[in-house]
Amino acid sequence: MINIMNIKTFLAKDSRIYYPRFLSKEWLLDLILQSEQYWIRRFMIALRKEEYYSYIKPSKFLKYYYQRRKNILGRKLGFFIPAGCFDEDLKIYHYGSIIINPNAKIGKHCTIHGNCCIGSKGSFPDTSPIIGDNVDIGQGAQILGGVTIANGVKIGAGSIVTKDILIEEAIVVGIPGRIIPSK
Fold it and tell me: Quick one: CA dihedral 90, 93, 95, 98, positive or negative?
């Protein structure tokens, strides 16, 4: 028997995502209207359940079931986010092409907007980004190669980061990404 309480506890780690109570007025409206956030929530639930049944309480059948469900929703939304890349409390604001390399490691409380790519440069050896906690990745930003991003960094919309950002709470903009002084 599946321990439902453990799954709920695991899903509760994404505290910045609002889940309406089952059969509440909000839940019914959400189901009928099927807004952008409705589909992103469904994707996040499938992603977190795939992670749960892959790493916390291994079950091949449930892992593949939720992986398939996540992939179907991912095609609809334009997401390619493998299990195990993001730590707790991921917030996705928009659907649209979000591509994450399976070897990338992203910390807690990450915020990501649409049309982002976090991946390798395609060279040998294949290296992927390591991103700290509380990082905000803007619309259309790309983080490429084996770079390290410090905690609390804000990456501006359309930026391309190919070098390490080791200063915490930095603001990065431009192509190539450079740190601008904060006021």
Answer: negative
- Using one digit for the tens of pLDDT, what is the confidence trace for 31-45? 898 888 889 989 999
Dihedrals phi, psi of 38, to nearest 5 degrees = -60, -50
Separation of alpha carbons 150 and 167, rounded Å: 6
The answer to whether residues 39 and 73 touch, using CB atoms and an 8 Å cutoff, is yes
Give 136-176 pLDDT, tens digit per residue.
999 999 999 899 999 999 999 999 999 999 999 999 999 88
- Domains, the chain, in order of start with CATH, read 18-77 (no CATH), 81-183 (2.160.10.10)
